[in-house]
């Protein structure tokens, strides 16, 4: 399977919130009519299989997402799975005060990411299924066809509104089932295309 080294420098991580209706509902958020983007620092990327929880947060949530890599033509060329780790307590405090989410979303190691897979490995981004297991129990299931805004719509919106560049990463949003991580948790994720396994990855939480 051809893949791209996930250690390559990424300029920006453009993340999308509330792109699955059921996830928006579980956090008591309105379902958006236009994509909701926010930024994570490119330095948040973590290719190691160990997740270090920040000592200052008591509620770090996992959010499994389909990640997409932009090539020199600002088109998708690779895809993988990533975790958009979120300090939910810090996020809720920021929301209550009308403040930015940077602390909650962009802390060190807050974007663990699996190896990249060439887009040529699949027929379409619209037929991907992914699932997250914690301690061998399924906690999240997502299907790209259930996204409110499909990958190409997200890309066009980003091109029209933001200074995206080659090697940027786009996180496409998380499905329902988010929850808190605990030290000692063991995470396994799988990505499939039409019942064909494309990728598996593993993380340990300390």
Automatic annotation (TrEMBL):
GO terms for molecular function: acetylpyruvate hydrolase activity; metal ion binding. It holds the Pfam family FAA_hydrolase. Residues 13-189 form the Fumarylacetoacetase-like C-terminal domain. Keywords: Metal-binding. It comes from the Bacteria. PANTHER family: ACYLPYRUVASE (PTHR11820), ACYLPYRUVASE FAHD1, MITOCHONDRIAL (PTHR11820:SF7). This is Fumarylacetoacetase-like C-terminal domain-containing protein. It comes from Pseudobdellovibrio exovorus JSS. The lineage of its organism: Bacteria, Pseudomonadati, Bdellovibrionota, Bdellovibrionia, Bdellovibrionales.
């Amino acid at each position: 399977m051809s893949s791209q080294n996930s250690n390559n420098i990424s300029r920006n991580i453009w993340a999308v919130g509330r792109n699955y209706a059921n996830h928006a509902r579980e956090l008591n958020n309105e379902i958006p009519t236009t994509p909701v983007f926010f930024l994570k620092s490119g330095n948040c990327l973590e290719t190691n299989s160990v997740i270090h929880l920040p000592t200052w947060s008591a509620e770090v949530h996992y959010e499994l997402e389909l990640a997409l890599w932009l090539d020199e033509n600002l088109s998708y060329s690779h895809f993988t799975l990533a975790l958009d780790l979120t300090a939910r307590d810090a996020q809720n405090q920021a929301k209550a005060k009308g403040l930015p989410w940077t602390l909650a979303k962009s802390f060190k190691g807050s974007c663990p990411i699996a190896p990249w897979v060439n887009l040529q490995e699949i027929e379409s981004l619209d037929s991907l299924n992914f699932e997250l297991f914690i301690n061998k129990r399924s906690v999240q299931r997502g299907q790209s066809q259930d996204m409110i805004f499909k990958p190409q719509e997200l890309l066009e919106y980003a091109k029209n509104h933001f200074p995206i560049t080659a090697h940027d990463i786009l996180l496409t949003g998380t499905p329902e089932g988010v929850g808190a991580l605990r030290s000692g948790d063991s995470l396994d994720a799988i990505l499939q295309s039409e019942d064909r396994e494309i990728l598996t990855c593993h993380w340990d939480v300390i």
